[in-house]
Amino acid sequence: MDQEPPDAPRQETPDAPASEQAMPEHAPKKSRRLRYGLLFIVLLLVIGPAVLVAQTMLTDVEELPAPVPITVEEVKPPAPPPKAANDLKFIDSPHHPDRLFRPYFGTASPNPSSKDPRHRLIEPFRDLLTIFMKRQGEDDNFTIRVYDNRDGTPLEVFTLTEERRKYQQTRTFNWRVIDKLRRAHTKRLVEKYEQLGYPKEAISAKWGRRNQVRKAREREAPFIHYEMRLARYLGLSLLATEIGTVETFNQDSLVSSVGARGRYQMMPYIMRQSNIHHYKLQTSFGKKIDVYEELHPLLTMEPAFTLLRSYVNAVGHEIPGISAYHTGPGNIFKVYTMFLNQAGDLHTANTTVLDAYIWALTEGFETVSSGTSFKTHSQGYVPAGYGALRAVEDLPIDTTLTLEVERLQLKEGASVYLGELLATLVKSGAHLRWARGTSSLGLYERFRHLNPHFELPPAQTDGGVPPEGNVLLVDAIDDAPVRFFLPLRASGILKRQGLDIIDEEASFRFDNNTFRLPTEGVVTEWDESYRRLVREAGRFGFTQDHRRRLGRLAQQFEMLAARNPSHYRALQLSIIKEHERLWAYKGWDAVAAAAASMQGTIKLTPVDPRPADTTAKPPAPAPVPIKRMTPRPPAPDTSSTR
């Protein structure tokens, strides 16, 4: 019997139904031929149509046009917005002042048995913080709380009841009108307690601001995440994020009586130094529009925070540095000088500039306010920021509301009308993610929303670009760079569409990577040396030697920025140059002289040369509770009468 080769494949066929099994060999040949014929016909009937279908499909494929090459980015839909980080709250941050600035902030209490005289400043300072926590987080805008400021005793809580009821019904109100009413009632309340025997200078009235603080947080929603990241990037606490709240309740269009402008209330000369400008742009209509860059928080935020960091370094600590943002570094130097000359019983080997500042807010306030322009508003500036922070620390930060955009400039000599730029984006067919809440608006109105610093007129009735709003974008006006904002990816789309006009080196992205901490190797030994100098200044290291060291470090920072013109290096150079300028101020000389006279009492103590680890997250301490005050009636007048 023939056998299959060992490696021959075995053909396996499925079992056929019994009716289709081969006939036995002894069946008549005619019958087998008939059955095979019928089987062949059946196969033709089954297979034939399938062959025709296959031929038709092949024909259709051959008639399709050649595929058009499309890049991945063009067909890729925009990434979904990030989910709200509901667990992102101020109260959980390692940069909360309660964690960074103990024992003056937070729940840690001083040792009652300690012989350190500085501990007597803590309780009155915390009483001041409590007053402002109530003002910013508990008392609404219809409340006046009256105190005896000699010991913080509450005297009365007065409420505009009818105005509050109207607000609760309409949810709208003109706070200037309310403040006018409160001003009149404050005058009446002061007169009332004067008649009851309280010295006028001992009567203090605090207006509640809870409604405005909450509204300020709403205005801040597109930018608060950037403020948090920028504060960390610059080594600041979360108190930095409340400067806009304290200054303007995060309103960008306000101008102070002395001319400070914008959300962070920067003076015009400081804005010019910080590359924030006012200029005019031509339109196709023939008229010009105004551009006020202080109206855009993403143009003013970084200069304001950088200036704050300069003040912090110049005065040696963040808390008096924040106060310097309001009252000026010169006043802080005067505070230090007065402390060194007049508060001798508080001088120890461990005394710092923070102790001097807390002294000025508490038992030294009368002395300081009589000899400087450091008055009541200056005394309450840091406490107001802390109260605002505590008022919103439990609110989740919805990062889906964060405005993600590109800040753009044109190449040198380039220009384009806004109408052409927007038409190019439409022509591309690309889907861009504009600001939240603008999906129902036309492209021109979306541009207006992203660029509030451009005073553009409203869109035409059909949503198009009006001639008086068809602004001619250029690279610069009188050396002021013209900067505008578009959604992420817009610059790349314009380039692919043939509109290659964007200066990529001058562009800046605001997204989840903005203000990331510098990577390893970016921070140099010169940066570490500068940090040591600042920490030594915090221990009254205001000496001629320190000033010479600062000058040498500033020169090194200039060389570092020239070799590596990165964003980080540019910021550090800006900070140290402003610091150097402030230490050339004559008020610094007075501090240096006072500090020199205290050598042997106040000493520079060794500090860790490495920066603090800001990556570890310590356990969250329990927040300081905000206790309600029970109004007390004034003490009866026991003086004799005629």
Mean pLDDT: 84
Distance between the termini: 148 Å
Number of strands: 12
What is the helix fraction of residues, given as a range? 40-55%
* Uncertain parts: 1-78, 604-642
Structural class: mainly alpha
What is the strand arrangement across the widest sheet? 2-1-3
Question: Tags for this entry?
Answer:
642 residues, 8% strand, 12 strands, globular, 3-stranded antiparallel beta sheet
Verbal overview:
The model is unreliable at 1-78 and 604-642 (pLDDT under 50). The strands form 5 sheets. The protein has a 3-stranded antiparallel β-sheet, sandwiched between helices. The longest helix has 35 residues, at 29-63. It has helices spanning 29-63, 72-75, 97-100, 122-137, 161-170, 175-195, 210-220, 224-233, 243-248, 268-273, 297-315, 318-327, 329-342, 353-361, 365-371, 376-392, 418-428, 443-450, 490-496, 525-537, 544-563, 567-582, 586-597, and strands at 143-148, 153-159, 203-207, 278-282, 288-292, 405-408, 415-417, 472-474, 476-477, 480-481, 484-487, 508-510. The chain has 642 residues and is mainly alpha-helical. It is built from 23 helices and 12 strands. Helix content is 45%, strand content 8%. Helix 11 (297-315) packs across helix 22 (567-582), helix 12 packs across helix 13 (329-342) and helix 13 (329-342) crosses helix 14. It is globular, with a radius of gyration of 36 Å.
